[in-house]
Specification:
transmembrane; 4 domains; P_typ_ATPase; 8-stranded mixed beta sheet; alpha/beta; 27 helices; ATPase_P-typ_TM_dom_sf; ATPase_P-typ_transduc_dom_A_sf; Rossmann fold; 813 residues; Calcium-transporting ATPase, transmembrane domain; hydrolase
């Protein structure tokens, strides 16, 4: 019994891409009776020997890893080399960029550690738990407290937390997280349960065969929780591309500028190094990537305080970009709790024998396990029975859509009308739809002449009565769905219930176009699914496999899809969606498969998650254009200097002054501003097109100033100071545009930045290499200052025109 079945080994090899290692063998093994479980002494022995179910790897980065990642970066290496070069030539005042780099690195470390600690604390609230039998008692413990040979009770909705073998009972499990196949497999006594699979129906007692490092559950859980760095959001991908391009380009440009200044322009070693460093520093978007990371970390912490747990920070942006939201009826539109409203006998049944029918149902539900909310509600309502002893029980499955109990004389089934009545459904259709239109969930209870095997019914069912159930609509649901409608987010309701019932519930919740519904059982081909998902809003009688098909079809149509769910039947779709949202009150499997977990299972907080995402992305996009202006200018001016054999006119300290007051400080405050705008277009394209006019204006103004300055014999220091002031003017012009629409805080940020730059120029001129200008230089400075406004205006119009032309050509193509 120690080794796994070959099927389990093969499945795990397919998932993880390597051969399964033989588990270590403990010196002592126990085979306890499932009713008694291990004794406290046996649990202590296995715990002391290390045979616990503790995950081998930590679920998140350690503090040491966070510090290492933030300190030892490529650009920190570049800055270190530049700082060493400046120290070698004694240009210490040009080290003004170092405090900014150090502070930025510290902020990154502090914010990530704070976010890590907050998320870890909240993760503890949602840690997977299990029901274990010890000393003859059933205890609910953290799954990591389980030990080898523990007897665990598994019910529908539970994820199998370690490799186990069934010792009593029967369950149907879904192994899709390991094999990718959604078929439900019946597990009986002696069968193996694979860690990472989850129970769909029934309940059983199982003995743990492999735990901790010998079990794959830790790896599966970590895979679901991990940030999946290879699947970054568009914003992070765009920043990566920008950083990679700059990182490659700055090395040859820096070398060429130094060689040109030192060997061809006759500049001394000190001046050549200083001008080269200034050009390279200007090209590096040192604060942009950090701003994005910090902003996402801050958002994760904000949401954490609202009881929203993020397994993946990129999901903030993804959810903000969503244009289709797929939701389930139960737990999202309605409360999780379900109640039986009444039992209605069919025309075939004698209504005077209503008490007998109620007792028949009572016998039926008494034989079933309380493994779902429907059965729990029925057990609460039908408490009386005749005392009949069941001979066989067929638990409910999402595939068959019914449950059944065989007694000595007769067998009975309970389930969805279409699946129970089949070809006889049309006979009772009108009566069933009457109840469905009132928002009831209708189940048919009837006698069955065939053999119950858990598969689709083959023999005729004689309906005896209708069980009418309902879930109350969540109070906040209408307001929530109204918000999504206003934001242009299309809602698709995907449920396993009767489509008419779901449609009525969706209407009551205020979902737009809720009257457009379809029975998913009629969708037979992929083409049917694609056409239906584009046309309808409500989908009833949906199978787990179809949920996944719907999500895939929407993504193929170019939609950004968010999927919410709380049941085991939602897991496949959750894994495939662009952004997955789970209710913490739902199954362990759904929670682990999702990127966002609503810890209080309150769907009403979804708008705040979307708004947080929009605030972050729009504000980073707004601030990023400020950073890119400097990068475009420095890159193009470097090429200009190489082409015209001139020395780069600015010093590093001057670049630091401009960056501080036209980029760094205002960008930080603007990133914290509210922003509810819908995210449009691609991140890098939007940022680049906003920054390009100002970057070109800077290059034209400073390039012309240098050429005219040399022509009129103006000194290099005067030109350097004038160029700094010109850049500041253009910087404040673009900052003014970005601050639109103005409010009190934005006016204070804009005006404060101007005052700060002037104060530093007046009171700290030596630190930032600001000198007095000659009369010739002042005249040139005034002329080019006046010219910057129309140049910026016309370049903005030109870029806007080219953007519009590109759109027309692209759409025609």
């Amino acid at each position: 019994m120690w080794r796994k079945s070959r099927n389990a080994v093969q499945a795990e090899e397919e998932v993880y891409g390597h051969e399964y290692e033989t588990p270590r063998r403990p010196t002592t093994r126990y085979q306890p009776d499932y009713r008694e479980g291990l004794t406290s002494q046996q649990v202590r022995e296995h715990t002391q020997d290390g045979w616990t179910n503790v995950a081998v790897d930590p679920p998140s980065q350690t503090t040491r890893e966070i510090i290492h990642e933030n300190v030892f970066t490529y650009f920190n290496l570049i800055f270190t080399v530049l700082a060493v070069l400046l120290c070698l030539v004694g240009s210490f005042r040009n080290l003004t960029f170092l405090p900014v780099i150090i502070i930025n690195t510290l902020i990154g470390i502090i914010q990530e550690i704070r976010a890590k600690n907050t998320l870890e604390k909240l993760s503890m609230l949602n840690a997977p738990r299990a029901n274990v039998v010890r000393d003859g008692k059933t205890l609910n413990v953290d799954s990591e407290e389980l030990v080898l040979d523990d007897i665990v009770l598994f019910k529908a909705g539970n994820q199998i937390c370690a490799d186990a073998i069934v010792v009593d009972g029967e369950v149907r499990v879904n192994e899709s997280l390991l094999t990718g196949e959604s078929d439900e497999i019946t597990k009986k006594q002696g069968d193996h349960l694979m860690s990472g699979s989850f129970v769909v129906a029934g309940q059983c007692f199982a003995r743990l065969e492999s735990v901790g490092e010998d079990s794959y559950i830790s790896k599966l859980t970590l895979e679901a929780k991990a940030m999946q760095k290879g699947e970054q959001s568009e914003m992070i991908r765009s920043l990566d591309k920008l950083v990679k391009f700059v990182g490659i380009a700055l090395i040859p440009i820096g070398i060429v500028l130094f060689v040109q200044g030192f060997f061809f322009n006759g500049e001394g070693f000190r001046n050549s190094v200083t001008s080269m460093v200034a050009a390279v520093i200007g090209m590096i978007p040192e604060g942009l990537y950090l701003l994005a990371s910090v902003a996402l970390a801050v958002s994760a912490m904000r949401l954490a305080h609202k009881k929203v747990l993020l397994h993946d920070m990129k999901s903030i942006e993804t959810l903000a970009r969503v244009d289709v939201l797929c939701v389930d009826k139960t737990g999202t539109i309605t409360e999780n709790s379900m109640s039986v409203n009444k039992l209605v006998p069919t025309e075939e049944y004698d209504k005077e024998n209503m008490p007998e029918l109620s007792k028949l149902v009572g016998d039926f539900v008494k034989a079933m396990s309380s493994d779902n909310s429907t059965m729990e509600a029925m057990k609460e309502y039908f408490k009386e029975g005749t005392g009949a002893v069941p001979a066989k029980v067929a638990p409910f499955t999402s595939a068959a859509k019914y449950s059944g109990v065989a007694f000595e004389e007769k067998a009975y089934v309970l389930g969805a009308p279409e699946f129970v009545l089949r070809e006889d459904y049309d006979t009772y259709r009108t009566e069933i739809l009457t109840y469905a239109k009132r928002g009831y969930r209708v189940l048919v209870f009837g006698s069955y002449a065939g053999v119950l095997d858990g598969k689709k019914l083959t023999e005729k069912v004689t309906p005896l009565g209708y069980v009418l159930l309902s879930n109350p609509i969540r109070k906040e649901a209408p307001e929530t769905f109204q918000y999504f409608a206003e934001q242009g987010v299309e809602v698709k309701v995907i449920s396993g219930d009767n489509p008419l019932t779901v449609s009525e519930v969706a209407k009551e919740a205020g979902i737009k176009n809720a009257e457009e519904y379809v029975d998913a059982a009629t969708l037979e081909t992929e083409e049917d699914v694609k056409n239906a998902i584009a046309k309808y809003t409500v989908f009833g009688r949906v199978t787990p496999g179809q949920k996944r098909q719907f999500v895939q079809a929407l993504k193929e149509q170019g939609k950004t899809v968010a999927m919410t769910g709380d049941g085991v039947n939602d897991v496949l779709a959750l894994k495939d969606a662009d952004c997955s949202v789970a209710m913490a009150s739902g199954s362990d499997a759904a929670v682990q498969a999702s990127q966002v977990v609503l810890l209080e299972s309150d769907f009403a907080c979804m708008p705040s998650v979307v708004l947080e995402g929009r605030r972050v992305v729009n504000n980073i996009q707004r601030s990023a254009s400020l950073f890119l202006v400097k990068n475009i200018f420095s890159f193009l001016l470097s090429l200009f200097s190489v082409a015209f054999m001139i020395t780069y006119p600015l010093e590093p300290s001057q670049i630091s002054l401009i960056s501080m007051f036209t980029i760094g400080i205002p960008a930080f405050f603007l990133a914290l501003q509210p922003n509810k705008e819908v995210i449009k277009g691609h991140f890098l394209t939007n940022v680049f097109l906003k920054a390009l006019p100002a970057g070109l204006t800077d290059v034209l103004a400073v390039g012309a100033l240098v050429v005219f300055g040399q022509t009129f014999g103006v000194g290099a220091k005067d030109i350097s100071t004038a160029a700094t002031m010109l850049l500041a003017i253009v910087g404040f012009m673009i900052l003014y545009k970005i601050c639109q629409p103005l409010n009190t805080i934005r006016v204070i940020v804009w005006a404060g930045s101007i005052i700060g730059l002037l104060a530093c120029s007046i009171f700290l001129p030596d630190l930032f290499a600001i000198t007095g200008m000659s009369s010739k230089c002042i005249m040139l400075f005034i002329v080019f200052s006046i010219a910057t406004e129309p140049v910026l205006r016309y370049l903005t119009l030109l870029v806007g025109g080219l953007k519009g032309l590109h759109k027309k050509v692209f759409h025609k193509a």
